Amino acid sequence: MENNSLKINRFNPPIDFGLNTQEIKSRLAEGLINVDKSVSTKPTSKIIKDNVLTLFNLINIILAIAVLCVGSYRNLMFMGVVICNAIIGIIQEIRAKKTVEKLNLISSSHATVLRNGKKRKIKIEQVVLDDIILFEPGNQIVADSIIKSGKCEVNESLLTGEPDLIVKKPGDMLLSGSYIVSGTCTAQTENVGKNNYSSTILKGLKYIKKTKSEIMTTVNKIIKIISIAIIPIGALLFYRQLTTSSYDYTSAIITTTAALTGMIPEGLVLLTSSILAVGVIKLSKHKVLVQDIYCLETLARVNTLCLDKTGTITEGTFEVEKLVPESSTSTEELKASLSALTSVLNDTNETFKAIKNYVPKCKENLKVKEIIPFSSERKWSGAEIEGKGTIIMGAGEFIFGKNYSTIKDKIKNFSDDYRILTVVHSEDNFQNGNIPENINLIGFVLIKDKIRKSAEKTLKFYKIQGLDIKVISGDNPVTVSKIAKRVNLNNYESYIDVSQLKTDEEIQEAAKKYTIFGRVTPPQKQQIIKTLKSTGKTVAMVGDGVNDVLAIKESDCSVAMASGSDIARNISHIVLINSNFSAMTHAVEEGRIAINNIQRSSSLFLVKTIYSCLLSLLFLFIPAPYPFIPIQMTLISAITIGIPSFILALEPNRERISGNLFKNIISKALPAALTVMSGLILCIGLYFLFDLSYENIPH
Fold it and tell me: If I label 369, which of 294, 443, 534, 650 is the partner at 20 to 30 A Cα–Cα?
């Protein structure tokens, strides 16, 4: 995490003064500011470009220009489909972009710095290298910084995935993206912008990645094949119409355009966009933001779901399971002691909050003689209260020290399933900030990770749907396994500590074998996803932190929690606005409904494409005028294909997606297309047999 440029002249400003005006100007001139544009939402200009500049649109625009040149404006109706399709895509992506940008404002946007001896509150992008920043509880670390004075506890879970608080002292590095939980400190920025630790994890990430969509691939494959064939067929058909019929230049262009537009499945593109857009609208009611409409298809095909424990299965907080009093103490006495202690302490860690929420609020007017707040270093906190003595709670081994063996067996009874806090009482005072020698055990507080209420039900849904679930976490694998057991996850006992794996080959083997992965670094998460994909799995990744971003980017379908990092939200296909994991079930169902029905309806559109291609080839060899004009093809498509298929596509169908989309569609479309073609050939045969006029041909 060293600054990348070795030629930078570093400043060492006094921690009670900060940078002076000249030094700030120097940093601004050198561009050493905290701006990092490596990962952002897609610009509006790129959204419009991606939806307008497509091969599908290009072919139709060329045909429209040809029709315009001959002044046949009524035959431009087919462009309505093209325009509607582009508008749907643009509106959906811009809507998603604006929603995500609003969510990004939730993250810290200001920092308090010392400049010219005065405190100033500035935007995080105005922070420069060597700035002196003041940090308090609740502040986000906006740039990698080295502590110069003070002491604090930091939550780095968004970076590492581990929920445990880390004590930071002078000389220690504060990583951008983490949060101050307790304590205050003054720090000097060590890295800014793209050199920050969180940015180095995200090196190479750009925008929301394009979804891997079989529907899009199939349609593009059809359009690509047609685009290759359309030029020679169009040129030959135009020549044939001019030379073998009574058509003039204008009529030849119009009929040729009709033949070529009939070959392009423009209705299929619009139907796909429309149905997926309807699915997106439905999901928005469940607070699910879809950033790319085609990701619904990918999600519907997912067969392996990877989760980060925190934020998905758990809420990232704790709850008290029960109180276990010592034999000589009652539960009410233990509860009263905790009530008194929590009313006078100002700890801010999640364990303390869980206890404070569990015990009743103390109604007495307590007089405090001395308070010792919790720290990760001492592992306990306590207070000396007048009339109640000294009450202490924390880790038993730190409270009892060399006498820990006296309570070790009692704690062992619960240690496999809970985090355990020991509560003691003493009539003596603190001794220079240390625990009194004479202490009496009051009891234990059994604490566990707070499971999301819907987690077990949601995981059961995925189990029924046949999805393989894997939990990938930066936390201890044993802890993760216990949590997985509580939500009845299959194979919860199959876990591994990835930090013990030394080679890529070992990680790849583990990815295929285990269900629970603990102590996983961001690059290792990415490699696990990559390995699963290499075995033919369609993988979705659900996460919320910077540590999940590489895995999110690698997955086929990515899902982020709104409460997580803004970077995770920016690059994910789906964002759960309420950070409610259960909303994913709605996304899977809507995806399956949309894709099953699109698959069923698509064959209708390809009927027209197939018979139009065959009809165009036929009229290269027979001396007769092509029987359709563009407006007729548009109306035929709308009435006989568009409306029926759209109604058909709205029918609920939650079956699992199976088989190859292209083969499924073609197998149903080909018989119908050949039947239509047979009818047209019969009409053309009658035209020649009875020497009918062009107006008498049914068309």
Answer: 443
CA distance 124 to 34: 7
Q: What is the pLDDT of residue 133?
A: 95
Together in a domain, 485 and 541? yes
Among 308, 475, 544, 556, the one annotated catalytic: 308
DSSP string, 231-280: HHHHHHHHHHHHHHSS--HHHHHHHHHHHHHHHS-HHHHHHHHHHHHHHH
Domain CATH for 406: 3.40.1110.10
Q: Is 504 a catalytic residue?
A: no
Looking at the chain, how many residues does it have?
699
Q: Is residue 308 located within the same domain as residue 372?
A: no
298, 325, 241: which is closest to 628 by C-alpha? 241
Residues 607 and 636: their CA atoms lie apart, in Å, by: 12
Q: Which of 394, 425, 451 is the C-terminal boundary of a domain?
A: 451
Quickly tell me which residue has 């239509």 as its tokens.
676
More confident residue, 338 or 432: 338
User: Which tokens sit at 677?
Assistant: 């073609």
Report d(CA 11, CA 21) in Å as an integer: 13
Single residue among 554, 585, 616 that ends a domain in this structure? 585
Nearest alpha-carbon partner for 319 in 275, 291, 259, 359: 359
**Which ranges of 79-195 would DSSP assign to H, the alpha helix?**
79-104, 157-160
Confidence of residue 530 (pLDDT cuts 50, 70, 90): very high
Q: Which region among 36-40, 174-178, 567-571 has the lowest average model confidence (pLDDT)?
A: 36-40
Structure tokens, 572: 């994910």
Under the banding of pLDDT at 50, 70 and 90, the label for residue 109 is low
CATH number of the domain residue 581 falls in: 3.40.50.1000
pLDDT at 572 over 90: no
Instruction: Give CA–CA dist 564/552, Å, rounded.
Output: 13
Same domain, 388 and 505: no
Residue 167 host element (H or E): strand 166-168
How many Å apart are CA 432 and CA 316, to the nearest integer? 35
DSSP 181-249: EEEEEEEEE---GGGSHHHHHTTT--SSPPP--HHHHHHHHHHHHHHHHHHHHHHHHHHHHHHHSS--H
- 242 falls within a domain: no
Residue (of 566, 521, 537) closest to 529 by Cα position: 537
| Sequence-ordered strand ranges (E) for 326-458 | 368-372, 380-385, 389-394, 419-426, 440-451
Mean pLDDT of 310-326: 86
Tens digit of pLDDT for each residue in 409-421? 888 888 777 888 9
Choose between 590 and 145: higher pLDDT. 145
Q: Which domain holds residue 347?
A: 315-451
Burial class, 639, CB count within 10 angstroms (exposed 0-12 / middle 13-18 / buried 19+):
exposed
With bands split at pLDDT 50, 70 and 90, how would you rate the model's confidence at 570?
confident
Task: Please name the residue that has the structure tokens 């992506």.
Answer: 93
State how far the Cα of 15 lies from the Cα of 11, in Å rounded to an integer. Answer: 12
Q: Is residue 445 located within the same domain as residue 514?
A: no
d(CA 156, CA 159): 5
Element (H, E) at 517: strand 516-518
Confidence at residue 105, expressed as pLDDT on a 0 to 100 scale: 45
Mean of pLDDT values over 4-12: 72
Over residues 178-189, the pLDDT tens digits come to: 878 778 899 999
User: What percent of the chain lies above the pLDDT cut of 70?
Assistant: 87
Residue found by looking up tokens 């135009």 in the block:
238
